[in-house]
Amino acid sequence: MAFKKIKMILQKFPFMKTNKKGSLKYFVYVVLTRRILLVTLLFSLVLSAIVHISVNNDLYDRVFITAHNRFETLRARTNEYREKEGVSLQQAMDQAISALSLIQYDKSIGIFVYYQINSLNEGTLIDRYDDNYPDIDRIKRYIADTQFQFSKDGSTLQEIVKLDGYSYVHLVMPLYNKTGNLIGHLRTMFSLTQSTMDQLKGEVYATIFYAVLIVILTTAILYPVIVNLTRKLAAFSIDLLDSNIETLRVLGNAIAKRDSDTNSHNYRVTIIAVRLAEKVNLPSQQIESLIKGAFLHDVGKIGISDNILLKPGKLTESEFALMKTHVEKGLEIISRSKWLSDAKDVVGGHHEKYDGSGYPHGLRSDQIPINARIFAISDVFDALTSRRPYKKAFTFEETMKIVMEKSGTHFDPELIDHFKLISAKLYQELINKDDEALRKILHGIIQKYFSTGIDSLSY
Ligand SMILES: [Fe+2]
């Protein structure tokens, strides 16, 4: 419900309103915006994490320096007591710590509430809590519950420990004697003051705020540039597509002109083939290839001499053999263009027959690509319903009778079953249309199936 409401509110904004999925506007205003916002969000999160770690490290450094200074003072005091009074190391340290608790140090960050001095050889020498600290039991519990193992090297440990919602710095630092040899470790618990905690939080929030602000401002500046570039890219892509379609038209029409005076046959076979493909739910991309193939199916006839191509009577056997080569010639022509190459199914297979009696390879049933099987029906249907110099146009009924007779021999019977359902309507739609009217129908089909680079982006 909440999601629906948000969606309804968003729909009121112009940039969310218009667009159907797949359009350029949808890509630029919705997909691109969503992607940029997502990247901004992710980038802000990563930046926030880095800031958080950096601020914490800064805190460690400050506590570490304070602890180090404090230990140096402790060591100096211990030596003083040992020299003056000749007491044991442990007694001298004990006295030094008692004296130190009276010495002022910078307590604005926090206070040391626990000291442990651990010798490498003698184990724990000093284990001292600040009993003036009101929550010292919490620290005692933590120390008792954690079985801490001192390392044998000079490594340092610094970590924030959360106890009952309060933050402490748990710090372990190596201790060296005057000659620089490791003699043990100082372990402390440092209680952060509330003001330090607030300051830390404030620093983190402020830095995150500025980081996010910078990311958002940068995005806001870059967004129009990206949108503009995307638009230019889309315009370029559309121009390129227009040129390609123009090539398709010019090639298709060039061969149609050699065969007859009009482009109508080319237009009609393409429209019929697409309608049948839609009826059998062929994927859009395959229909795109079918359109190219339908337009260019006889492009190889460019290489057939006029005395064969335009011969009014029946071709001799050798002439027919030459005529058949238009299939290979067509395949060779389209193979030179990457964009046209997917027309090969129709160009190469439009004279194959379902029972294997076609040419050039005598392919049968499913061996013939579906685009070629679809096209074969539309090509013959249009040839029969059209008037040619050597024959009159057959009526719809006469045409369908011939087509049905060839189901299973020339044509795929399954496709014929589908074709039967749309043929009457198609006949009515196309029968008396001139070149211009057919061109308009085809234009609509091309708009529907040919995608520009930008619209075919998967998102
Ligand atoms: Fe042909």
Itemize the secondary structure elements and their pairings.
Layout: H1 2-11, H2 14-17, H3 24-85, H4 89-100, E1 110-119, E2 123-129, H5 136-145, E3 157-163, E4 166-176, E5 182-192, H6 194-259, H7 264-279, H8 284-296, H9 306-309, H10 317-324, H11 326-335, H12 344-349, H13 370-385, H14 396-405, H15 413-430, H16 435-449
Helix pairs in contact: 3-4, 3-6, 7-8, 7-13, 7-15, 7-16, 13-14, 13-15, 14-15
This protein binds fe (ii) ion (FE2).
Fe (ii) ion is lined by residues 297-298, 326, 350-351.
Task: Give a nutshell description of this structure.
With 459 residues, the chain is α+β, with helices and mostly antiparallel strands.
Superfamily at the CATH H level of the domain at 259-456?
Answer: Hypothetical protein af1432
What does the radius of gyration come to?
43 Å
Helix content: 55-70%
Q: Would you tell me which CATH topology of the domain at 259-456 applies?
A: Hypothetical protein af1432
Residues in β-strands, percent: 5-15%
Sheet/helix structural class: alpha+beta
Q: N- to C-terminal separation? A: 26 Å
Task: Tell me the number of strands.
Answer: 5
Please give the CATH architecture of the domain at 259-456.
Orthogonal Bundle
What's the CATH first level of the domain at 259-456?
Answer: Mainly Alpha
The biggest beta sheet reads: 5 strands, antiparallel
- Taken from the alpha-carbon principal axes, the silhouette is rod-shaped
Ligands bound here? fe (ii) ion
Q: Helix tally?
A: 16
Write out the strand line-up for the largest beta sheet, numbering strands in chain order: 2-1-5-4-3
Low-confidence stretches: 10-21
